[in-house]
Amino acid sequence: MDMKLLDILVCPLCKGPLLYRKNEKELICKADRLVFPIRDGIPVMLEDEARKLPPEEDI
């Protein structure tokens, strides 16, 4: 994942910052509790492709 890209990416819903999980290849929006996948090095920033972060999963 390109670190310059990470600096400019925001959540498509709330425009908030994203947390990068390198090992899981995910970007997380804490405010919306959504997890966006990274496929082949490309972040998939679509709400329909995101999964809800369960309350028991620690960020």
Task: List descriptors.
59 residues, mainly beta, 5 strands, globular, single chain
Summarize the structure.
The chain is mostly beta strands and 59 residues long. The chain contains one helix and five strands; from the N terminus they run αβββββ. β3 and β4 form a beta hairpin.
Report on the architecture of this protein.
This protein has 59 residues and is mainly β. The chain has a single domain, classed as N-terminal domain of TfIIb, CATH 2.20.25. 10% of the residues lie in helices and 29% in strands. The chain is built from one helix and five strands, in the order αβββββ. Strands 1, 2, 3, 4 and 5 form a five-stranded antiparallel beta sheet that branches. Strand 1 and strand 2 form a beta hairpin. The longest helix has 6 residues. The radius of gyration is 11 Å and the shape is globular. The two termini are 19 Å apart.
